Structures are given as C-alpha cells and as structure tokens.
Amino acid sequence: MSKYRITVEGKTYEMDVELIGANGAVVAPAPVAKAAAPVAAAPKAAPAPAAAKPAEVGSGSVVAPMPGTILKVLKATGDAVKAGEVVLILEAMKMENEITAPVDGTIGSLNLTEGSTVAGGDLLFDVK
Predict the structure, then answer these.
(1) How far apart are CA 75 and CA 15, in angstroms?
(2) What is the pTM of this model?
(3) Which domains does the chain have, with CATH numbers?
(4) Tens digit of pLDDT per residue, the chain (128 long)?
C-alpha cells in the first residue's frame, strides 16, 4: 500500500492506494527509499521513467511494469530470443513500450493476444 498526499483547490487530502492485479490480488509495490524532508514541504512529483523496463520475478520471468493493452506480440512460445530483444509492445498512457527479453533463451510461456489488457505486475512471459 502506498500513501499519497494531494492538494485540490487548496485543500489537502491523504490517501492510501493499493495496486490490484488482473486476478484481483493485491500487488506489493517495490520498496522505495525515503529521504528526510521538512514536514511543511510539499512532496515532489516522481520523475517519469526514461524507458519501460520489465521487472523480473524469476530468472527469466517478465511482469507488466504498468497497466496497459498488448498492442503487438512479436514472439511466440518456443521462439528463441536474445537478452534485450523485443518480445511485445505494451501500450500504456498512449505510449508504446517495448517489453524485452531479460536473458537469452526460449520463450517458455506467452499466453497473451493483441488487444488483451494487463495490470501492473501481471506475468507477461518467461524465458527459459
């Protein structure tokens, strides 16, 4: 669960937010290092990521870095891939994000179709 403070029209609100995967389970957020900040200081907006990199669950498992729609599937189960090779395109926030293979190997499971939606943290594919 993440805690956020927002200000709307001069009124400040605090809220707790949980990320829920496609299966309805709560997805644990990555730990974030907190810097000491003055109590009166407003929180700074997090910088946008430079490029979407998949998070690794296991040695070759790739999960969705954010919720979105599968725009293109470029590889199939059983296809050989090299580390860094694009496996699929995930469209999120009107941007196309290349999701790449984390290691050299063979696509072990890829049960996605173009147009399907995924939540952040959902398993996209694995490389064996």
Answers:
(1) 40
(2) 0.53
(3) 55-127 (2.40.50.100)
(4) 677 788 888 888 888 777 766 666 666 555 555 555 555 555 565 555 544 444 444 468 888 888 999 999 999 889 999 999 999 999 988 889 999 999 999 998 887 889 999 998 888 988 98
DSSP assignment of the chain equals -EEEEEEETTEEEEEEE-EE-TTSPEEPPPP-PPPP--TTSPPPPPPPPSS--PEESSSSEEE-SS-EEEEEE---TT-EE-TT-EEEEEEETTEEEEEE-SSSEEEEE----TT-EE-TT-EEEEE-
Do 77 and 107 form a contact (C-beta atoms < 8 A)? yes
CA separation, residue 71 to residues 2, 23, 34, 123 (Å): 29, 21, 35, 16
